[in-house]
Design brief:
The protein is 49% helix and 14% strand. Strands 2-3-1-4 form a four-stranded parallel beta sheet, sandwiched between helices. The longest helix has 21 residues. The radius of gyration is 15 Å and the shape is globular. The model has no long low-confidence stretch (mean pLDDT 93).
Length: 154
C-alpha cells in the first residue's frame, strides 16, 4: 500500500531536509512547491501573483501525487500543511485512493525558526526569501497537530 507523507511545519522547520530523507528511505516521489516556483518565477514572494502561482503549483503537484499513489508509489508532499482542515483533506484524498497517510511534524520554537530564517535568507537557493516581519504572524497562526493526527493511517 502506498503512503502519502505530509510534511507539517513552518518555513525553516526542516521540512524539506526531512522530505529528502523520506524520499530516499521510501523510494518516494517528493513534491516541494517552493522548488518549482523559484525555478519557474524566481524569488516572487513579494509579488501579487505569488499566492495564486503557489496554489496552482500545489494543485498540479497533487495531480502528479494522485497518479503516483494510485500506482502504488509513496509520495512526500512538502506543502507545510499549516491547518488541520487541510491535513485532513489530503489524508481523506489519500484514503479514497486506497493509500495510507502519515503526518511528519517538525515542531521548532519560534526563536529558533527566526534564527534559521536569518541564515536561510543570507544564502541563495531554491527557498524563498521571507522577511522576519512576515514570519512572526505565521508562528501565531500555525495549527499544531495533536497526538491523534500524528498516528499513521492505513
Amino acid at each position: 500500500m502506498a503512503t502519502l507523507h505530509l510534511m507539517v511545519g513552518l518555513p525553516c522547520s526542516g521540512k524539506t531536509t526531512l522530505a529528502r530523507a523520506l524520499e530516499r528511505e521510501h523510494a518516494a516521489l517528493r513534491l516541494t512547491p517552493d522548488e518549482w516556483q523559484v525555478r519557474l518565477f524566481g524569488q516572487d514572494a513579494s509579488e501579487p501573483e505569488h499566492d495564486a502561482r503557489h496554489s496552482l503549483i500545489e494543485a498540479l503537484q497533487w495531480e502528479v501525487a494522485e497518479r503516483a499513489l494510485a500506482l502504488g508509489v509513496d509520495v512526500v508532499l512538502d506543502f507545510g500543511f499549516w491547518a488541520r482542515e487541510e491535513r485532513e483533506d489530503y489524508r481523506s484524498r489519500a484514503a479514497e485512493l486506497g493509500a495510507g497517510s502519515e503526518v511528519h511534524f517538525l515542531d521548532v520554537p519560534g526563536d529558533e525558526l527566526l534564527r534559521r530564517l536569518a541564515r536561510r535568507n543570507a544564502e541563495p537557493g531554491l527557498a524563498f526569501h521571507i522577511p522576519e516581519e512576515m514570519m512572526r504572524p505565521w508562528i501565531e497562526q500555525f495549527e499544531k497537530p495533536d497526538a491523534d493526527e500524528l498516528k499513521r493511517r492505513d
